[in-house]
Amino acid sequence: MQKISAQQIRSSFINASRSEAARLNLPKNFDTLDWEALDFLGWRDEKMPLRGYLIIPDGGALTGIMLRAPEGGAKKNRSVLCEICRDVFSKEDVLLWVARRAGKPGRDGNTVGTLICAGFECSANARVEPPANGIHPDPAEVVKRQILGVQSRSQLFLNRVRGR
User: Fold this and answer.
1) Beta pairing class for 51-58 and 111-117
2) Pairing status of strand 94-100 against strand 41-44
3) What are 82-113's pLDDT values in tens digits?
4) What is the number of alpha carbons within 13 Å of residue 126 lying toward its C-beta?
5) Angle made by CA atoms 64, 66, 71, in degrees to the nearest 5
6) Is 44 left (phi over 0), alpha (psi -120 to 50) or beta?
7) Closest Cα to residue 68, out of 39, 111, 28, 107?
8) Domain residue extents for the chain
């Protein structure tokens, strides 16, 4: 992902009002992000912890999605798999993040949700090389496939928010 500005982020949202986008708090480490290691920018709002944001590269442009986490955090009675990174080794929580649909359906109250790492660690998870073995003799190739999967599945979620 290429470096982006706060203004680009605030103007990218398809399911948030201008005032909601103006009030969002950028990630604490925004100025020091390793943009090349990100497939999308995702973060939880420090001042509104039930709110999260995804900024997804979208055909040369950026598209932002405002998300909401469940009240009370994650209730852990079983492990669930993030739909974006599908990392089976991650010890991080996974939450059902819900987004209003874009446009009139969202204004009418329609939402879509998916399971995503609670702290949006998907890009980092995809870049962890597995140990070489008979099934995956080249860990670098596995990482490339994992990164493509994160990019593809984040785009699929974006399309669901759009209603496509």
Assistant:
1) unpaired
2) unpaired
3) 999 998 777 778 999 999 999 999 999 999 99
4) 25
5) 160
6) beta
7) 111
8) 6-162
